[in-house]
Q: What sequence folds into this?
């Protein structure tokens, strides 16, 4: 038995030395915690503190241009005991990074504060100055009860290697209503068994964007003012499967519920997206939109069989979607033969105009 363990350890060490940094996120790194309590009150304290089973974080300011990186021991418990502020600088970020296996991050209701508007220029990640992404999460375990305040551009980038529950998290970019752009709250990629629950989000882009992953649940969350809950945008070699979007409230977003894929991609697919009990109100452009012609610069109106979308179900509890006047209730644009098994039996729509459905037969819904 001992021998087996040693050779496994050697094998994984060998994998680690040859892995690229992107692959490292997927390799579970096992690090035994020391029985100590580490305290972090500046970046200088981090290296010693993260060896401990318990890590307490006091209020402090992370200097501009530095990442606050928590590379935790297995099973570590982190207690945020004050607000963290981040200095302002034009760079790519991330401002914060957390890695670890079966960790617990207790936010204690505190704030991670990027201190407002210094880099907002209405161009987001499409132009203007380079803006740092805020919080990269590569951990498994639980993270709860804190606020991400005023990210310059995208908020959370989540790539969890195993089960992770993120609950009671607030992402508040209300101060960016005029100049904030691409302030996605949760960007999800290479995720596995992820639940986001009871999140409260005010922003100017996707509330949630699911780009790549398997087993993703978004539930009991409220999205205000952004672009809605999205799967995508999907490009080549990205797979999204087994998504549950449940009991969320989507208030005054451009879109309510959306699936967006790029035209002419290879090796990508979306399968098994289940919507139940969601309520979207005041959708400004579309209530439900599923499009295979997405680009960041705007829809092309042209589709090819590139990213098949299968198993899109509005079933279970009623999904209620109401759109503003001038908006469309349902818009679906598929390439012929590229969308299948759409069942909208528990979708109720109202307001605006009906919209259109192209190249897919949708069970139990008519425009
Ligand atoms: C967040 O933590 C604070 C401080 O411990 C606590 O008072 C509050 O109830 C917590 N909120 C949630 C939703 O857990
Ligand atoms: C997708 O994966 C294939 C096979 O690994 C690779 O040849 C191709 O370059 C990838 N495409 C993109 C856009 O990453
Ligand atoms: C729908 O399918 C038809 C037949 O293949 C195709 O000609 C048309 O371009 C498709 N519509 C769109 C918008 O892709």
A:
């Amino acid at each position: 038995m001992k021998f087996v363990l040693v050779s496994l350890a050697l094998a994984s060490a060998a994998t680690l030395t040859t892995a690229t940094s992107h692959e490292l996120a997927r390799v579970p790194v096992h690090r035994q915690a020391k029985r100590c309590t580490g305290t972090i009150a500046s970046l200088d304290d981090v290296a010693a503190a993260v060896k401990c089973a318990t890590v307490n974080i006091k209020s402090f300011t992370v200097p501009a241009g530095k990442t606050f990186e928590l590379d935790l021991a297995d099973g570590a418990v982190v207690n945020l005991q004050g607000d963290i502020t981040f200095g302002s600088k034009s760079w790519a970020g991330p401002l914060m990074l957390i890695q670890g296996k079966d960790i617990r991050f207790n936010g204690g209701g505190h704030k991670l504060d990027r201190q407002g508007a210094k880099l907002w220029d209405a161009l987001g990640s499409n132009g203007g100055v380079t803006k740092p992404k805020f919080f990269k999460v590569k951990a498994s375990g639980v993270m709860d009860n804190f606020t991400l305040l005023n990210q310059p551009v995208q908020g959370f980038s989540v790539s969890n290697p195993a089960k992770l529950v993120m609950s009671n998290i607030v992402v508040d970019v209300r101060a960016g209503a005029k100049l904030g752009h691409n302030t996605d709250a949760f960007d999800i990629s290479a995720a596995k068994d992820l639940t986001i629950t009871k999140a409260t989000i005010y922003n100017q882009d996707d509330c949630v964007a699911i780009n790549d992953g398997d087993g993703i649940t978004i539930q009991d969350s409220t999205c205000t003012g952004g672009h809605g809950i999205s799967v995508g945008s999907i490009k080549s070699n990205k797979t999204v499967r087994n998504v549950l979007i449940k009991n969320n409230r989507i208030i005054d977003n451009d879109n309510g519920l959306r699936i967006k894929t790029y035209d002419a991609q290879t090796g990508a697919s979306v399968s098994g997206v289940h919507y139940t009990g969601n309520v979207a109100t005041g959708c400004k452009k579309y209530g439900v939109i599923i499009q295979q012609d997405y680009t960041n610069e705007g829809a092309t109106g042209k589709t090819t069989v590139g990213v098949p979308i299968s198993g899109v179900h509005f079933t279970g509890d009623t999904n209620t979607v109401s759109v503003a006047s001038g908006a469309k209730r349902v818009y679906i644009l598929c390439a012929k033969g590229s969308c299948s098994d759409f069942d909208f039996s528990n979708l109720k729509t109202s307001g605006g105009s009906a919209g259109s459905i192209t190249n897919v037969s949708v069970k139990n819904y008519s425009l």
